[in-house]
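Field reference: sequence -> structure
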Amino acid sequence: MSGSRSSSVDVSEVGALAARIRSEIGKAVVGQDDAVNLLLTALFAGGHVLLEGPPGTAKTLLAQSFARTVALDYGRIQFTPDLMPGDVIGANLFNFQTSTFSLTRGPVFCELLLADEINRTPPKTQAALLEAMQERQVTIDGKSHPLSPRFTVVATQNPIEQQGTYPLPEAQLDRFLFKHVLDYPSAQQERAIIVGHGSRTGQMDPKSFGVEAVAERAAIDAAIETVAKVRLTDEVVGYIVDLVRATRESTDIETGASPRAGAMLAVAARARAVLDGRDYVIPDDVKSLAAPALRHRLILSAAAEIEGRKVDHVLSGLVERVAAPR
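Structure field:
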């Protein structure tokens, strides 16, 4: 019984930490509650997040505000068509004074990396992040260099149908725990944005809005340990398996989700349970995360594309059809 009480205390502490982060981000970003909750879920689940949306929907400001609140070593890369892999991970440069090579570390050597407009650079440069995101290390000239065990990527991209963009390869997309699609704000939220931002001149950054760090590294580590202890019953595991396998059996989907996707969905569901104040996962945790966890891992069949079907619509139908445990 004492172990159960200890777990409850840990869960409440994580909830309080998340509330402080939400409050700080709210100083700069109006609305986008779903995006904030997914960033928190990914932080405590140790995953990466891809934010997609049209220009002007606060993708970059949201990522910057999130980074500022969690007090992690922060790095940023503005992806452009002429960016090279060495600009991301670094390179061994020859020092003529000492006649030796020395490592110049790239911006990827940080704890929280903002990969801004990641789809504006060619796949060759995008691929420089693959090893970093999967194994939290980079290889330069045959030598491996470890990154922080907390290394996390928050990437932004404009919709791929816009000019001057390169669609992310499937292998790159699979490294992201979530892909969240930001929409335009409601009329009330847009009014609040204009009132709060319309009188400002100069740089719109989190610091100017008074956003401060409220989550120390030790608190984040403790939250991640709490998530790892959350109970996942056999019934919920079976539900995740059924959901993932349903994406491979649908005639509307050419390529379904992998077993890795199911494992990542399970970790995310544990984090969502903690954010909701529970030390056990319920089917609704899985259901609420199915779209952001799976939408970027599915490829529609040719027939579905011809019919104008959308991935989110097909995925929503699968979630409705797969029976959840009671």
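Note: Confidence is low (pLDDT under 50) at residues 1-9.
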